[in-house]
From TrEMBL, chain A:
Protein name (Swiss-Prot/TrEMBL): Multifunctional methyltransferase subunit TRM112-like protein
Family that this chain belongs to: Belongs to the TRM112 family.
Superkingdom of origin: Eukaryota
Keywords, alphabetical: Cytoplasm, Nucleus
GO molecular function ontology, one term from the record: protein heterodimerization activity
InterPro entries the UniProt entry points to: Trm112 (IPR039127), Trm112-like (IPR005651)
TM region positions: none
CDD domains: Trm112-like
Pfam entry (one): Trm112p
UniProtKB/TrEMBL annotation, chain B:
Localization terms from the record: Cytoplasm; Nucleus
Keywords on record: Cytoplasm, Methyltransferase, Nucleus, S-adenosyl-L-methionine, Transferase
Domain 18S rRNA (guanine(1575)-N(7))-methyltransferase Bud23 C-terminal: residue ranges: 200-271
Record-linked Pfam families: Methyltransf_25, WBS_methylT
Subunit structure, interactors included: Heterodimer with TRMT112; this heterodimerization is necessary for the metabolic stability and activity of the catalytic subunit BUD23. Interacts with GRIP1.
Protein name: 18S rRNA (guanine-N(7))-methyltransferase
Biased composition (Basic residues): 232-242
Matching InterPro entries: Bud23-like, Bud23_C, Methyltransf_25, SAM-dependent_MTases_sf
All copies of domain Methyltransferase, residue ranges: 53-129
One record GO biological process: rRNA (guanine-N7)-methylation
Record function comment: S-adenosyl-L-methionine-dependent methyltransferase that specifically methylates the N(7) position of a guanine in 18S rRNA. Requires the methyltransferase adapter protein TRM112 for full rRNA methyltransferase activity. Involved in the pre-rRNA processing steps leading to small-subunit rRNA production independently of its RNA-modifying catalytic activity. Important for biogenesis end export of the 40S ribosomal subunit independent on its methyltransferase activity. Locus-specific steroid receptor coactivator.
Swiss-Prot/TrEMBL catalytic activity: a guanosine in 18S rRNA + S-adenosyl-L-methionine = an N(7)-methylguanosine in 18S rRNA + S-adenosyl-L-homocysteine
Species of provenance: Acanthoscelides obtectus
UniProt record similarity statement: Belongs to the class I-like SAM-binding methyltransferase superfamily. BUD23/WBSCR22 family.
């Protein structure tokens, strides 16, 4: 699971959960994968991303290189975009779990795939 | 032949053996690719910008590869672990989530620029478990899909309706969830080539895209020719054009990755007047 995906993921489909965001991450295995740098895509995603959540998620799994705030004029700041690119797309949580902020329900991550399947009594 | 949805629930039907076909059977692979390319075309994404797309029932990632090839980024959700394992094996570029579309799309509002789904939606019309209610599951799916699309984002879902009642059931739930749109039927006069695409729009009611293979252009040939001409008139950007894609594919082949053969569809542009 990439942190970009984490930034979008919620547990709101669960019965009784209203926002279900952000999910806490417990990472047991983290890997770095190389992804082609696409500055246009990264810049386009920045307004869609909840930066505080991204920053928090990154720190919680030991990625401390990300500035606390989005810099001005980021479209033309390659160094900044590269950092964001790395954190959003190249850091991959392989094993661990996601935790619902409202119910504490845990969603396991295996082989990089979060299991968001709900039980019958949770829908 | 009986319909797979009648045989077993999807997470059982799409076991390892069935999943293997999606990385080995070239006929299946070709058909899935063609439908994926048509679905992406019907999405009418902004020209030459990389987009963020949700692939529902992504399976082994064949539909996702189409998105990769066109320079988009994607997240795939599927209920079958065996299918997702094949996707991992194929080293697709998208991120994967194990989830049941009938339980909803678990994403925050406005997350995606668009969504596609290839050959998955008909599964929702079945009650696989005692507690399943197809109408409720369809509604949950469409309403959460609507929420996670950005404004003016579209969803295009290719599916195999069992009969007209089922098509109505599906369309009705989509409209109830707030979508505009309807079903585009490509090649309606051919039993083999006939394909159903549910085209859903969020930003107001727009005319449905034109189907392929209808009487006016029964072969779809004149249409493609027109499209090519328009493309030339507009002038092509260097990025994401056919050549850009061919080069990217070549790069990936050199890296020893699984890249599908180039076809006439590769890098084909939307005409903007579908
Ligand atoms: C015919 S396969 C197509 C896979 C892929 N889209 C492609 O074109 O190669 C249908 C897929 O839909 C998935 N599916 C069926 N019901 C589902 C559900 N309720 N939620 C998520 N995925 C589902 C199946 O697991 C299977 O992988």
């Amino acid at each position: 699971m990439k942190l970009l995906t984490h930034n979008m993921l919620t547990s709101k489909c669960m019965k009784g959960v209203s926002i279900g965001y952000p999910l806490a991450i417990k990472a047991l295995d983290i890997r770095t994968v190389e992804v082609d740098f696409n500055p246009e895509f990264v810049a386009k995603m920045i307004p869609k991303i909840d930066w505080t959540v991204l920053h928090g998620a990154a720190e919680s799994i030991g990625q401390t290189d990300l500035p606390k705030e989005v810099v001005d004029n980021y479209e033309n700041n390659e160094e900044f975009l590269k950092k964001v690119h790395h954190v959003l797309l190249e850091v991959d949580v392989i094993d661990g779990e996601l935790i619902c902020p409202e119910t504490g329900r845990k969603f396991p991550i295996n082989n990089g795939i979060p299991n968001m399947l709900l039980n019958e009594d949770e829908v | 032949m009986s319909r797979p949805e009648h045989l077993a629930p999807p997470e059982i039907y799409y076991n390892e053996e069935e999943a293997k076909k999606y990385s080995q059977n070239s006929r299946i692979i070709d058909i899935q690719f063609q439908m994926s390319e048509r679905a992406v075309e019907l999405l009418v994404l902004p020209e030459d910008t990389p987009c963020y797309i949700l692939d529902i029932g992504c399976g082994s990632g064949l539909s996702g590869s189409t998105l990769d090839d066109q320079g988009h980024f994607w997240v795939g959700m599927d209920i079958s672990k065996a299918m997702l394992d094949i996707a991992l094996e194929r080293e697709i570029e998208g991120d994967l989530i194990l989830s049941d579309m009938g339980q909803g799309c678990p994403f925050k509002a406005g997350a995606f620029d668009g969504a596609i789904s290839i050959s998955a939606l008909q599964w929702l019309c079945n009650a696989d478990k005692k507690h399943h209610n197809p109408v409720q599951r369809l509604y949950k799916f469409f309403s959460t899909l609507y929420a996670c699309l950005s404004r003016s984002g579209r969803a295009v879902l290719q599916f195999y309706p069992e009969n007209s009642d089922q098509m109505e059931l599906i369309t009705a739930q989509a409209m109830k969830a707030g979508f505009y749109g309807g079903v585009v039927v490509d090649y309606p006069n051919s039993t083999k080539a006939k394909k159903f695409f549910l085209v859903l729009m969020t930003g107001g009611n727009m005319p449905l895209p034109k189907a392929l293979g209808t009487d006016e252009d029964s072969q779809g040939v004149t249409y493609t020719a027109k499209r090519e001409r328009l493309k030339q008139q507009r002038g092509k950007s260097l990025k994401k054009g056919r050549n850009w894609i061919l080069e990217k594919k070549e790069r990936r082949r050199k890296q020893g990755k699984d890249v599908r053969p180039d076809s006439k569809y590769t890098g084909r542009k939307r005409s903007g007047r579908l």
